[in-house]
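Annotated sample (chain length 242).
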Amino acid sequence: MDQTIELEIASADTMYEGSREHYFSVGQSALQCVKAAMAAAGKSDFRNILDFGCGFGRVLRALKASFPSANLTACDISKEAVEFCEKTFGARPVLSGEDSANIQFENAFDLIWCGTVLTQFDAPQFSDFLALLQSHLTRDGLLIFTTQGPFAARQLRAGAFNYGLDEKGVATILEGYEATGFGYADYPSSVLPLVGVAKYGVCVAKPSWVCRQIEAVPNMRLVSYTEQAWDNHQDSIACAWS
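Output written by the structure step:
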C-alpha cells in the first residue's frame, strides 16, 4: 500500500514553478509510467531503486511512497539536491557528473528511473549514459527513461515553445531530427555557469532513432515505448535485460 507522500519542496528546487498541484502531478505521472512498465514486464515490486537525475525529489517522493520497502539511491549533478534527498527521503546520495565513466554506484538496481536527463545530451552522451544505466541494472530489473519525441518536434515547428533556445538553435534541432532522427542544440554559453557544466543543451529524438540506440547496447531489450506518457509531454521508454 502506498504511504503518504512527502510534501516538503526545497526552496532551491527549480522544477517547482509555483504550482504545487502540477509539481506533484509530475511525480505521479512518472509513477504511472513505472507501473505501466511493471505490467508490461510482469514485475510486482522493487528492492533497490535509483533515481538518476533526481533533482530535489520531484519523482523520488512518489517512488518512496509507492515502494516504501525499497532502498533508494538519489543521483544528481547537484550536491545540494542529493543531500536534500538523503535528508528528506532517506536516499543514498551519489554525485553525478558529465563523464559517464566517472560515475560509481555501490550496487545494481532493479528499477532505474531517468527522467528528463537524456533530453539534455548530444548523441554520443546519450549513448554513453544509456550504456551506463544498463550496466547497473539487475538481470530482473527495469530501466525507464524519457525522451522528447514527435510531440516536442511538432511543438518546436509550430513555435509553441522553444526550450529556451533561439531561432538558430530550434532550426538546428529540427534539421537534425528530420535528417537523422536526432536533433541537438547547445544552450547559450551564458547558461552553463548556472547549471555547473561545460556542455548542456536540448535534444529531440524519433522513436526509431532511440530504438537503434537500445539495440546497440549489449544485453538490452525494449519492453515498452509510450509517446507523451510523462506529464503529457515526454516519451517513456522501458528496457530490460535481453
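Annotation: The two ends are 31 Å apart (CA to CA).
Annotation: The mean pLDDT is 95.
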